[in-house]
């Protein structure tokens, strides 16, 4: 590769890494939405029913996340059976998949609040940024397409392809179920419970989008790296930028997935009822 080709490859690599930075910035800005929602809960004291809903939702989330941990242990055992010695490198990913599935299950099966429902239904943009929502969907679709293409080209073993297709797809379905439930449920009728309701919706939307994003972005990055390395071994005339783009895309997706995972941890803390700010 000549000097111009190297320069083009470097510029392309940097350009492909930009989306991961933009996604990380969007998730960092989502912290402002969390602060506003949490502050609203502290500003106005909820009713007794609202306080009970907060406690019930917190217990439900903890129980299902423990289920996810157990599922992760089961997946570790399954990886030992399927992949034998190679499963040593899969223990951590299997545990993470189980934990993320537990997060998604908790949000998709949350019990409906028992307070009196109002007449207004919330808008999606009130719960989460459309950019974060559609980036999650795009990542899942991209991962499924990449896994299917590599599987059909015999670049992936059947067992690996099955995992790469099933885990993100299941996570996506659970996320969409949770998001739909958040959207169709009317807001609370009691004005003092509206901040609690909105905070729960905000937390839930970000949790499912974050978990589904991690389930898609990290495998997508690994698949793109595999594709880029395979194409890099071929002999071509001139500058071949496709392998460079694939490798850069792989690093970008993995970086974005790890960044989203860091932000996801901050959303795992449940909505809490503190002393009302107006009563201090």
Written description of the protein model:
Helix 1 packs parallel to helix 7, helix 2 packs antiparallel against helix 3 and helix 5 runs antiparallel to helix 6 (194-232). The chain has helices spanning 3-43, 48-83, 91-108, 130-152, 158-184, 194-232, 242-267. It has seven helices and no strands. The chain has one domain. Keywords: Membrane, Transmembrane, Transmembrane helix. The chain crosses the membrane at residues 6-24, 66-84, 90-110, 131-151, 163-184, 205-229, 241-268.
Summarize this structure as a short list of keywords or feature phrases:
mainly alpha; 7 helices; single chain; transmembrane helix; 280 residues; globular; membrane; transmembrane; 75% helix
What value does the Rg take, in angstroms? 22 Å
- Average pLDDT over all residues: 82
Total DSSP helices: 7
Helix content: over 70%
Question: How far apart are the first and last residues' alpha carbons, in Å?
Answer: 68 Å
SSE pattern, N- to C-terminal? HHHHHHH
Structural class: mainly alpha
pLDDT < 50 runs, ≥5 residues? none
